[in-house]
């Protein structure tokens, strides 16, 4: 009898041990798959490698490719509508110079903020170009042919309704990744673009960290204002991302105590103390590719990473670098997959922005 009990005990022990092992294996497998599924692909200005950036057509294509997030860049019109456009100028991507030749400012640029929504909607939108010797030259020659077919600009509300409509018809829950362009500039012009953006997000039901949206900005003083003032006043608590620029780009200006505006110093944020400060206001960090991979030291087959991702992770922030373009690769990779590998798995970023979302999604799916 004792022997039988002993045997039974052994069987129970064995089952328990085996069960535990299976659970552990399952847990490990889950960890592994989470590791991959946590890496996210953000459609940079939509599927902008295939269709003109930020058009609803480009968003629809990226949506169908299966991205979890579509990016919106926002600028404000003269009559206070939020326009989905990358620059706060109209001249790189529309025929504004032909339609409204006398509306440029002294610097020769046509500002979104000087035009009404009706005027903006009258423009034809196209693949980005630069004027050289009086001729328009397409910036990415192998992309959608400049000036072909017909594309129009649209408002932030129209894009949210478009994405929420698709979410309804497909049963998916694709998110927004919103950037307010140059809040400092809008402030100089008497407009509060961040407040307007939050009002629209709230109207469409995006109010908490569980809402499927990231709010991103290059303007650190404005991010502090968004977190400490606007979101408090409006009873909102969205996920936020601080975007990092090189100082040489003059991406953001900061108002001084004497009222003057000076270029914002991003370098001070890329230190352990700076990153801890950013983490008080941001859930994530958006560096350029060059900030997570040392482009000077990296060679083919020998990627040298920076300490950016570690610093951000040490401060519990996710890292989503910008931008991977198949047709604009750095010299240390042979193809786009090597760049996805370097950013996501060697530098350890949590996701990335790419103009070719299908290639990014395919890369993650196939990554072992
Ligand atoms: Ca952007």
From TrEMBL:
One of its GO terms (molecular function) is glycerophosphodiester phosphodiesterase activity. It catalyses: a sn-glycero-3-phosphodiester + H2O = an alcohol + sn-glycerol 3-phosphate + H(+). The keyword Hydrolase applies. Its EC number is 3.1.4.46. It is an enzyme of class 3 (hydrolase). GO terms for biological process: glycerol metabolic process; lipid metabolic process. Residues 39-364 form the GP-PDE domain. Keywords: Glycerol metabolism, Hydrolase, Signal. GO terms for cellular component: periplasmic space. It holds the Pfam family GDPD. It comes from the Bacteria. NCBIfam families: PRK11143.1. Belongs to the glycerophosphoryl diester phosphodiesterase family. This is glycerophosphodiester phosphodiesterase.
């Amino acid at each position: 009898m004792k022997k039988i009990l002993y045997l039974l005990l052994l069987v129970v022990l064995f089952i328990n041990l085996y069960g535990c092992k299976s659970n552990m294996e399952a847990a490990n497998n889950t960890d592994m798959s989470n590791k991959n599924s946590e890496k996210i692909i953000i459609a940079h200005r939509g599927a902008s490698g295939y269709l003109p950036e930020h058009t609803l057509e480009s968003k629809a294509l990226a949506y169908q490719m299966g991205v979890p997030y579509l990016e919106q860049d926002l600028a404000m019109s003269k009559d206070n509508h939020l326009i989905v456009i990358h620059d706060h100028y109209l001249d790189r991507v529309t025929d504004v110079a032909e339609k409204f030749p006398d509306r440029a400012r002294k610097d020769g640029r046509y500002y979104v903020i000087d035009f009404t929504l009706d005027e903006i909607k009258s423009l034809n939108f196209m693949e980005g170009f630069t004027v050289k010797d009086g001729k328009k030259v397409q910036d990415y020659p192998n992309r959608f042919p400049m000036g072909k077919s017909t594309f129009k600009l649209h408002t932030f509300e129209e894009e949210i309704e478009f994405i929420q409509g698709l979410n309804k018809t497909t049963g998916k829950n694709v998110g927004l990744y919103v950037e307010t362009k140059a809040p400092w500039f809008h402030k100089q012009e008497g407009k509060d673009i961040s407040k307007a953006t939050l009002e629209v997000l709230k109207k469409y039901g995006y109010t908490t960290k569980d809402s499927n949206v990231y709010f991103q900005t290059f303007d650190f003083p404005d991010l502090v204002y968004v977190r400490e003032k606007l979101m408090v006043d409006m009873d909102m608590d969205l996920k936020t991302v601080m975007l990092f620029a090189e100082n040489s780009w003059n991406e953001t200006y900061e108002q001084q105590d004497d009222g003057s505006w000076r270029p914002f110093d991003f370098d001070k944020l890329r230190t352990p103390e700076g990153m801890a400060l950013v983490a008080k206001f941001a859930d994530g960090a958006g560096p350029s590719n060059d900030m997570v991979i040392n482009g000077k030291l990296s060679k083919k087959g020998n990627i040298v990473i920076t300490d950016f991702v570690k610093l951000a992770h040490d401060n519990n922030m996710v890292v989503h670098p910008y931008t991977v373009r198949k047709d604009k690769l750095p010299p240390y990779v042979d193809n786009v997959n090597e760049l996805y590998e370097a950013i996501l798995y060697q530098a350890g970023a949590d996701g990335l922005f790419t103009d070719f979302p299908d290639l990014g999604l395919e890369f993650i799916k196939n990554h072992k």
